[in-house]
Structure to design on (810 residues):
């Protein structure tokens, strides 16, 4: 079950002027569930995105990147679940293009103005005909106040939809930022996560928007892991419609970035809290490093260790497993004598071993919580990094051994 | 349950002249089980070893390396289970030294001639007093024909003991090679595995022996993974007693290395077949790479992927997960169009997607086997690498969430 993750409330998700959303039941993998989403953007919107670095990146990733690179203004996004259209070769690229062409015809724009996204099973051909047949239903239902429905339409093994809104004052105007994301397994984003969409009605020029989406991804989706598997389909898109009339320049940039990153962090943590089989949410903070790269390397070693993750599932303060993971993280000159390990406020280890003050019952108390912070102080510099992850339970195995997701 | 792993038969494990073994019930963690092993070596034996690269290496690893470096001839090894003596600081080093001193007194040798090894829970102090109290029992039971008992005394979460013997003709004489190992979880050796001991009655000079143990480890223990966790206590020791009278020089080296590596591979594969919760044994072979490093990188990405491992547990040919793992392995210029993926003899993927000839029932047939080879042909060079691993089952979670191992 998701760890302290509240489902979004329909009325609390704020429409973003200039963005319409419509969903459909296209029957891509299963019937009677929404599995198709169309998002349209008014003229004048800017769009930026970051995509997976997986070499087996999906056909829609290839096509979306090419369409973005065409320089033509983006008018629509089309997202399907139930099939990732990854590992599908040339036929997969043709299917992604066919989807864009069909939507472009309905919207009277060029195919290059449509960006496609897919999520679901890998190495099965995308049933483009079903998507094309479902597009009119999605288009006829387009409306601004539809993020709640949209966030549900992009779910796969997610239990809870991930979506959130924020308001921020920019250039004397109130600007809205609304975002949604999906993801629960195959989560170890490298540039971005499975699928995330954030829109604002601020006006942000494209080059700045690209820098802002990268910064937001680095502060959020690039800090999470469920199982260490980097997806073939990761994409985070940032849309700025400009409808609020608030123009973001150098003076407004920091406030705008903060609002966007806050939404991105909320969504990214939501993915971990809804991680496949998760019962615990862990924050792995490594500080006192020489640079943030080595801090992140150690944080990910801890976050990926199946032994650490099963100990958290069991609420067992078997914390030597954390020391082992720190030790094999690959920082060759790490001096374990200077290292301190904390579980929330409890000092667990120092001077190369268990702290004299540590008592098993203190570790046990923290391990029983649903939210736990593992803090590693390296004592060799001023850099730090934080990674969010979840535990490893029977249900992770069950979910991934039972369904073909 | 172990995957096609036969328990060693007592009568088939050949004594190695010059090596005596004795066990005891020291009650280190649990009572009424053998948890202490003493191995003594006749004068003239050479010893070489490789150890974990984990920065939190255990106190006995530190002490064993120092004692080896002293240059004094090794006369005995002492191994305990139930406690890893890792993450135990200076107190742990003192406990390891106390164990060596007690055994040295019993054997009338110097403490530096004794090498200590521990395996079990991390970050709990070693009860050296219990070990010291158990040593006389182990010493009084020393005998040559005792490898079967010894292999059982070093087990932790192992279900089946791992031990094997080989005979090889060297310099006109028949030479014996007998080895044993333990390990089931926290298995992703980096230089060696949990604990492995191989002895031969060939005469091998120390510098050559060190090269041979490194070569054997690289061909065996450094090619396996159960959960990607590199232990704090990994050690592989190679002992040459010389009692056969067969001297290994340049002419005999290849045959001797082959016999040693064969024993090492048998033991390493045994650890994977007895991997925690294992139901499948997978050989991940990556060929056609530019160098063996990139082949191994891809093989380990596949072997470590929880999504791949749970799919094998389910016998579900959800093989797109393998493509995803290959894609995120970190080979930045990998051309997925040239790559071919085989499951045993079945061509699964080519040209960036599913092979036209691939049929689900063929994949299903192979997936149902207990032994499966995943072969990845990269098509960009002549290098190759092989990694052995097991699947990821409910029982892996159960074992690591239920016991403090």
């Amino acid at each position: 079950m998701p760890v302290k993750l509240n489902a979004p409330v329909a009325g609390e998700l704020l429409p973003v002027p200039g963005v319409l959303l419509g969903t459909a039941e296209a029957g891509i993998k299963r019937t009677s569930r929404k599995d198709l989403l169309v998002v349209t953007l008014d003229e004048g919107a800017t769009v930026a995105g970051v995509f997976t670095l997986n070499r087996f990146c999906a056909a829609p990733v290839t096509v979306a990147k090419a369409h973005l690179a065409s320089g033509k203004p983006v008018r629509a996004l089309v997202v399907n679940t139930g099939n990732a259209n990854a590992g599908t070769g040339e036929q997969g690229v043709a299917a992604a293009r066919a989807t864009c062409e069909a939507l472009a015809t309905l919207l009277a724009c060029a195919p290059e103005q449509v960006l496609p996204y897919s999520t679901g099973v890998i190495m099965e051909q995308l049933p483009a005909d079903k998507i094309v047949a479902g597009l009119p239903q999605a288009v006829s239902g387009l409306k601004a106040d539809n993020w709640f429905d949209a966030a549900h339409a992009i779910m796969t093994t997610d239990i809870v939809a991930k979506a959130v809104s924020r308001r921020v004052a920019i250039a004397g105007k109130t600007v809205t930022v609304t975002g949604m994301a999906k993801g629960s397994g195959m989560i170890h984003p490298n540039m971005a996560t499975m699928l995330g969409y954030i829109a604002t009605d601020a006006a942000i020029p494209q080059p700045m928007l690209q820098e802002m989406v990268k910064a937001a991804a680095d502060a959020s989706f690039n800090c999470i892991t469920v199982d260490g598997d980097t997806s073939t389909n990761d994409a985070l898109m940032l849309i700025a419609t400009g409808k609020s009339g608030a123009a973001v320049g150098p003076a407004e940039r920091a406030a705008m970035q903060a609002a966007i990153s806050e939404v991105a962090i909320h969504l990214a943590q939501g993915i971990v809290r809804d991680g496949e089989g998760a019962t615990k949410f862990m924050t792995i903070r490594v500080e006192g490093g020489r640079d943030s790269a080595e801090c992140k390397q150690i944080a990910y070693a801890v976050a990926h260790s199946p032994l650490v993750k099963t100990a958290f599932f069991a609420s067992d303060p078997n914390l030597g497993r954390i020391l082992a993971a720190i030790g094999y993280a690959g920082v060759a000159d790490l001096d374990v004598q200077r290292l301190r390990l904390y579980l929330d406020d409890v000092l667990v280890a120092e001077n190369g071993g268990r702290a004299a003050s540590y008592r098993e019952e203190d570790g046990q108390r923290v391990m029983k919580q649903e939210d736990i912070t593992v803090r590693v102080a390296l004592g060799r510099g001023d850099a730090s990094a934080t990674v969010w992850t979840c535990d490893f339970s029977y249900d992770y195995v069950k979910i991934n051994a039972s369904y073909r997701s």
Remarks:
- The radius of gyration of chain B is 22 Å.
- Residues 10-273 of chain B form a domain with the L-amino peptidase D-ALA esterase/amidase fold (CATH 3.60.70.12).
- The mean pLDDT of chain B is 92.
- Chain B touches chain A through 69 residues (CB under 8 Å).
